[in-house]
Amino acid sequence: MNSKFGFFSLLSRLAKDEHGTILVQFAVYVVAVFGFIGLALDGGRYLLLHNSLQDLADAAALAGAAKLDGTRGAITRATAAAQAMADNNPPRWYDAGGSTSIGTPVFYSSLHPDTATTADKDAKYIKVTTDVTAGGISKIVPTFLAAVGAGSQTASATATAKATSSQCFPTSMMLCNPSEPQTGSTGDTSSFNPPVGAEFIFSVAGNTGGLSPGVFNLLDTPAGSGSDTAIKGFLSQQTPRFCFSGGTSPAQGQKTNATIVGINVRFDQRPNGDITGLDLTPAPVKIDGQANPGADCNKQTDVSAHSLLLPHDPSFTPATLSNGGSQQGTGPQLTDLQAYWANHHPGNLPAGVTTRWQIYQLEAAGTGSAGTWLTDTVEPHGPVCAPAITEVAPEFAASRRLLMVAVVDCLYWGVHGNAVNHIPINTYANFFLIRPSDGNIYTEYVGKNQINGANSLLRLIVQLVR
Questions:
Q1: pTM of the model
Q2: Domain range enclosing 84
Q3: Which candidate, 401, 446, 399, 449, places its Cα nearest to that of 197?
Q4: Least enclosed by CB within 10 Å: which of 56, 209, 364, 461?
């Protein structure tokens, strides 16, 4: 009996004894603590991998969007650029997978709703997704959570970017690339390579109306106003009043008088009537074969027999063009340039001068004998009708006689003069006005600039949209 009661007494004392219970609690808590530590470490690695993959997706999408200029092969180039960005900047924090870091990009012509496309000219958006396949490098293998059966964890991210062209200069005219092939056009005007110094004559009559290479037309204003007042103001502008993005469209209808006014203010020919919106800044040298008697600048007398104009190309006899046409020469003859120089300046034509634009730059800068005029008693070479202007550097003053003309592969882009086209512009050419407009626009080709070129004012802007 005593032993029995002694046993229960012992159990009672053990039940009340709290010595050493901390070991039991520690054994329970340590499992939970290490679990939380493992969750924090493995979960943190997962989040870091996800952020790294998002950075990669963003960078790859932007790199791909920078190639979406709509020309042939744009999708292939965008895919390669996105993949190259991923290959050269692999994500961090992964510890399982292969070598591929992004999946095949998806291209869209529009968003909301998303419209997928495989056509180069329609691809404006690119969506990049980090690779989530078994061969990717987007996995982590849990270090601590593996003890509770957690397997490798896959992370991924997506990014969508778009490309938009932007220009901060007045592109008021458009030339359908006369060298565009009838088949196999690439849309990038790479075939447009006329000789520097060649004369181009543009007709101000008619509009494109079709897809013919060599067709010329005026472009609508960025604000979309095609009125005569808006068009002549746009043509007269040299310094941009605003920047705009996206494509442009041909102006509708006949704008002959508006074109003549907008071009000829650069020659100090101030028009009758409304001058609202006109940039009346003249070029520093205005030789146009006309004398302005007295203070009435709207009355002109022909003095071209004494004040020799810059010569036409001898390769063609300028004709009256129609229906929005253009005509291209091969360049001026040296003897014609020498005749112009001998009529206006002392001495000989400077060595190395082979174009009318080179002569004009010398005259605008007043360099050497180009600053001495033999014909000022017949036709003063400087402007007399325009308001006083602030002196500017010669290279900028001379550019008052430059026109920036968009050059477009019209067959590739499906340009129609009687439709709103939103034509993408990836090339523009500088043309020097060699004489005032009399119904046609007489120019000399100076050179071309392509989108994102070293000295180009035309840029492809890329941005993330989601």
A1: 0.83
A2: 18-166
A3: 446
A4: 461
